[in-house]
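Much of our argument rests on the idea that a fold can be written as discrete symbols. The amino acid sequence and the backbone structure tokens for this protein are reproduced below:

___
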Amino acid sequence: MMVELDAASQTLRIQQEITFINQTNDTLSSLVLNDWNTAYSNKNTPLANRFSDEFYRGFHLATEAERGGTSNLTILNVDKLFLSWSRIIENPDLITVDLRDKLAPNQSVSLFLTYFSKIPSDQFTKYGYAANGNLHLKNWYITPARYEDHDFVRYSNSNLDDIANSSCDFNIQFKIPKEAALTTDLVITHQMEEKNQMSYFLEDENRTDFSIVIQSKSNFKSYHNDHNEVITDINTTKLDDIQKIIIINRIANFANEFIGLYPHQKILVSQTNYDRNPFYGLNQLPQFLNPFEDDFLFEIKFLKTYLETYLKTSLQLDPRKNNWIYDAIQMDAMIRYIELYHANSTMLGKASDFKILKSYNVANLKFNEQYSYFYMLMARKNLDQALGSPKTDLIKFNEQIASKYRAGLSIRFLDNYLQNGIVKKSIREFYNLNKAKQTTDKDFETILKSNTTKNIDWFFTTIVHSRELIDYKFAKVSKTKDSITFSIKNKTDLPIPIPIYGLKKKEIVFKDWLDLKECDSTFTIPRKEADKIILNYNNEVPEYNLRNNWNKLEGFFPNNRPIKFVLMKDLEDPYYNQILYVPTLTYNLYDGLSPGLRLHNKTILDKPFIFDLAPSYSTKSKNLSGGGGFIINDNRRTGTLYSVRYLLSGSYFHYAPDASYTKITPAIEFRFRKPDFRDNTKEGILLRQVIVTRDQSKIVPTDLEANYSVFNTRYYISKTEITKHISSNGDIQLASKFGKIAAEFEYRKLFENNRQVNLRLYLGAFLYNKTKSNYFSFALDRPTDYLFDYNFYGRSESSGFFSQQYIQAEGGFKSKLQPAFANQWMGTVNGSFNIWRWIEIYGDFGVLKNRNNTAQFVYDNGIRLNLVTDYFEMYLPFYSNNGFEINQKNYHEKIRFVITLSPKTLINLFNRKWF
């Protein structure tokens, strides 16, 4: 291959010869080539859809110059005859080449390619060209796809570093400007200077992937050990070369001993690769805490990135279908390394020594104990996925964190169960097999089974290829002075082995593995003076719930957990009933600033039962206010109905300066999801009874509707991505004096020219209406909010600043028009279109009907400043039924605003990218 860089246009001119040897048993009439750089060519590729799906806006807003792609491709055979080739719309980054003659087994064919490879900006994936002109090249060239099971593997680029290339021998001449420097993990045989260019001659054998970095001045450093050369630019400013050499050699020697000798002369460990998938935990702690020593930080970063690169460039697995093996070996190695060299390290490092943190479970956890919590975070949300799922099927948090950690925990579980170093031996055998041939997960399974006499079918069928949960608890326990008889309740009906420990004053006096061939088994074992028995004490098994795993053998209450009060937030501690308390400060116009104390049991992990109480003191009304609730979560593991929630909530606040309201709401919610967990569709049904009691107010008349009860059922469904949002919901309300039905539809589209349109349709009608005021009527611009669902800061204000707060509901108008209510039916359309970045024009029109009146047409328009959608917006009215509002008196009182002060809603901006 001959490659020449045009630095000005970030383009590579490539002349390439591919010699393909048919090592299969099939006769081939075509070849499939991976051309993953084409994934950057437009906004409709699978890569672009992935960015949209994960709420990354940058690619869609990028210029053509910032994107990449392959152009001017020609393919010739050895006779210099053109070969026909094609792409398909669904997979434009794959090329199918039609051969002129069929290729029999053990025969070879040569293809001669010429093309331009435009390198994309690194802002999308961290690979590509940087603002300073440096390039980190990845998947920039065309290469044969992997062949498996009588066909080529056809994977499109999804920004997952899982290209399925055939193993190849490379020979490359790479020309770059003379003043630049080239770094690579290929072998540089020699260099040659010619005019203003420098040619690097690169080669290596039996590789599926490699990296090239071109910089004005290389910031990589090379470190040699007994087996190979390590090249890295992992950032650290506080370690000298001697310290780095010690750490790098220790990691390299550990990997060689645990996994096997690295098969190539050089390995490139880059900061770019680390930044793409950092060690979750280290990158979340505030920098000012400085909880870890500089050498430990460097060591963990280098260890994670080294192992990942080590496995990806040496295993000949399908990196998408068999991704769990990469994760299992990498995380197993990391856990063993920490046990060997940093056994006393904690999850928070030096921060664990702070007296203020001593009572927190998160501060007392060993470094390796954090992995199970990150897995359980998703399991408790009912969002965990099977380890054996293809990498493209995993939601982002699972792909980068939870499934990776669970894979490591699972292989460690198997190792603890099999003992005698069987897993380590099997990993080495499997790794050596990869040097000789292309492998699959079946090869790994065969090797593991050949090294043990125990039946481990359960590991692959249940742990790897299903999302079944593991959860055991004690059913019955009886004891004598010398023995213990107990029954194990298998909560998920899986015959998975589990260890049992006996403790005496927190010291382990025995450990046994229970091979549970049947559910709800009964055992009798020697007591050995134990005062407590615990299942899975050291968390060897990646179990769903550890809170039901222990039983005291002394005392009256066998499972009583002491109550533990914790400030703010903590990880779940299975040996305590944690009550978290959080100082709060809320505000509304009538209660004023309301300091309070929130008491709840919400740790980072979801629980089946949740209570949340938030009493506060109203500084204006000089009395108690606040709210609270209870939730029972019933997660369903199979089917589209994945969650049923039973709720009881209540609140007490002022709705006027001289009057308060009490709201009590029992409810049940059914939540549904698609089989594809990555599908952003949210669907559910909510059934609730809203019971409201209001004090009489001399300022805001309550008429005859002071106290009321409304049965409400809602159905909602939505699907949201960066480029498109569609949602709809239906609402039925039934009360003694009225019944009404409503429907709402929303549509948002981001076009290829980066213009965005927002449309909303609202339809509502009364089924019956015996009320004598507009309190329950449909509102055109500002709902009365008789169900007290919205966060109005001054809900009863009809003039002044607080009356200008806008919440998009019911009619959705921004201008205040007459009539403002409809007591029969109403239909409105709200729309907006951006004209420059966050500046939009909006328009509303509708028809509303009141009793004894003809239907009336209403409209308004103006400018919307959409600074942060749903969180901070302003509406500047221009023209409506009122005329030219911009010329009218007191125009500032006509401006509407959206301000969200709740941190919970802002957190959703983070959650949607991960979950």
